[in-house]
Amino acid sequence: MWASKARLVELAGNVDGIDTAKLRSCLDAGTNAAKVDTGETQATKAGVNSTPSVFVNGVLTGDYSAATVSAAIDRALK
What we know:
Helix content is 55%, strand content 5%. The chain is mainly alpha-helical. A two-stranded antiparallel sheet has the order 1-2. Helix 1 packs antiparallel against helix 2.
């Protein structure tokens, strides 16, 4: 997993305005871990294996280029 607690705190340290001590505390508490796990499970079941991922009417478009998303929208409108 690329998103270890240490890696998230490290990345957050490069963003102005993020209190890394508070972030570390939240991650250690695990308060929202179940919500994250549920979201990850739902995404995996839906076929998501990368971000960003785009769905049109519940169908994964495959990529997020303007041409692909536009074509998916056109198909959905037919």
